[in-house]
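Workshop exercise sheet. Pairs work together: one partner reads the sequence aloud, the other fills in the structure field after running the prediction. Swap roles for the next sheet.
Pair: D.N. / O.F.
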Amino acid sequence: MADCQYNIGVFDSGFGGLSILKEIRTLLPQYSYMYLGDNARAPYGTRSFETVYRYTLEAVTKLFEMNCNLVIIACNTASAKALRNIQQCDLQQFGNDKRVLGIIRPCTEIANTFTQNNNLGIVATKGTVTSKSYEIEIKKFFPEITITSHACPMWVPIVENGEYNSDGADYFVKKELDALLHENPNIDALLLGCTHYPLLLQKIRKHLPEHIRIIQQGEIVAHSLQAYLQKHSALESTLKRTNEIQFFTTDSRESFNAIGSHFLGQEISSQQITL
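Structure field:
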């Protein structure tokens, strides 16, 4: 067996990826994880493809340098705008033992299980919606599904500023859901296509008709990672089993620790780094 020396890296533009990490650790607690939030440059949702690609590559490179050999891009915008380029153009420069995975594909592969009438709604950032990544991937597997995507530009700033329980959050959540349902009243399932949105779950549920099922990504991504590691046993055998998490942010440690604890559901202590 290979030496167990590597961490699993989890990257997001800010706090949202912590909701993915939480579910991954619930299912796979034995490994050693490093979480990197590029909070100083968040949000990514309104940035250009080139900028998101550059920022994401810098973060992935940093995690490889910090002894990760598998990186999960736990950000929908980065998965949509940067993942394929990194996998196809950049990964080989880091050696044959490095892997980068995203969080869009695991959801699109089972999209037919979300909806009973083939009308799926997706709420996400402008960047994710503009990329059409979900539509392209879902149509590959399930061309019969009608997909209605809607950008919610205020939702991430609301969450990042800790206002997800406020009356202002109610206003912006209702506004965007009403617009989505006006566009397609037949939606019977809603995929939260941004890792920040689980913190708005209570508000979303409040302003959404009861019959519409809400799909969160975290558990889906966790099970997909478990299957990936079972399939790639050589890589899995190199992973540390220390049941630890280290947190890194490109912005204020104090802010990251305070807001990040809400996402993860536990107290956290981070280190500040530069990319």
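Discussion prompt: The chain has a mean pLDDT of 95. What would you look at next?
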